[in-house]
Amino acid sequence: LSDLLFVLARVLNRANLDGLGGDDVYWRSEKLARGEASD
User: Fold this and answer.
1) At CA 30, angle to CA 23 and CA 6, rounded to 5?
2) Is-contact 30 10, C-beta < 8 A?
3) Rounded to an integer, what distance in angstroms lies between the CA atom of residue 19 and that of residue 36?
4) C-alpha distances out from residue 29 to 26, 38, Å
5) 3-class DSSP state of 30
6) Which of 1, 22, 24, 30 could form a disulfide with 17 if both were Cys (CB 3.0 to 4.6 A apart)?
7) How far apart are CA 20 and CA 37, in angstroms?
8) What's the Cα-to-Cα distance from 24 to each of 1, 11, 36, 39, rounded to whole Å?
9) Taking the chain, what is the end-to-end CA distance rounded to the nearest angstrom?
10) Which of 13, 12, 7 is nearest to 26 (CA)?
11) pLDDT for 12-36, tens place per residue?
12) What is the predicted pLDDT for the residue at 12?
């Protein structure tokens, strides 16, 4: 379920930013969050 939320949040985030360059920052945050969640 967490994966689904991550995907949804990513899609919404990308739509909101509309390519303003914040996607990379979000991707890094997602990777960090995934790493902690995997722990």
Assistant:
1) 95
2) yes
3) 27
4) 5, 14
5) helix
6) 22
7) 28
8) 23, 13, 19, 23
9) 16
10) 13
11) 776 665 555 555 666 667 777 777 6
12) 76
